[in-house]
């Protein structure tokens, strides 16, 4: 019996690097060892991507997950037939490929929600292209699904040893400060604790970042740590969560990188994204935490500047697939 979890993998925006890194990730032995991949997208686009990458595998085109056989060396692809494969405007923002990418995301989400796959993983889509079509009647549901996967503050970003969670969404720093409350931080810490447990950390060690210089110096540089962040940490600890903080933002990520913590709770957008981008490691992965199913996405974009050149690094997508497989295995 094959115990590897079945994972739906969307190929991303056809005009970007998504199909290329999907092809390359599929060919990696660690991926095939960890899971059974069901690619969701357009078969013509994926055929071209495999050929361009020099990957010689058979393709089994299906219309339902029940038709998949997952034979070794064969790509199962649920063909949405929604892209003119030979007319893709490679490297350019395009509403047609955005619509196709959204359809793939919604299809994968429905399969995951119905338990027909153990998890979903998404190759990169393009925000500008998505917003070009998000108000179209046929695209509203799809755009909402994408936004909750890609833009929600309730998510984890992982690069190498860093796992970072956010308290506030993609807003100005002034708005983020105004949004901070004990309950918001506590709720985010609970989500982080549960996510880390699903990843195998028991009990997870969570560092809670400060928002002011030197953690406010006892109120000299702002009272958020005294009045909000500190009480939230104490409330989390009272619930049995191994939370520590507030810890100054200029040291907390170094301490986590060195293994002192399993996750960091960041207070605002750039605090969440700067450390992973500094470390790099191929781009990182993003995990929305408020889904009723396992979903993982790449933390980088469509890279239109290198699309079609055959030089895209698939490591972020490989990491996303392996993390989804690990989480699915622990949930089983």
- Class derived from helix and strand content: alpha/beta
CATH T-level topology of the largest domain: Isopropylmalate Dehydrogenase
The fourth-level CATH homologous superfamily of the largest domain is Isopropylmalate Dehydrogenase
CATH architecture of the largest domain: 3-Layer(aba) Sandwich
Q: Give the averaged pLDDT, no decimals.
A: 91
The count of strands amounts to 12
Distance between the termini: 15 Å
- Percent of sequence in beta strands: 15-25%
Quickly name the level 1 CATH class of the largest domain: Alpha Beta
User: What's the order of the H and E elements?
Assistant: EHHEHEEHEHHEEHHEHEHEHEEH
Main β-sheet, spatial strand arrangement: 3-4-2-1-5-12-11-6-7-10-8-9
> How many H/I helices?
12
Low-pLDDT runs: none
Radius of gyration over all CA atoms, rounded:
20 Å
Shape: globular
Task: Tell me briefly what this model is.
With 332 residues, this protein is of the alpha/beta class. The protein is built from twelve helices and twelve strands. The chain has a twelve-stranded mixed sheet with strand order 3-4-2-1-5-12-11-6-7-10-8-9, sandwiched between helices.
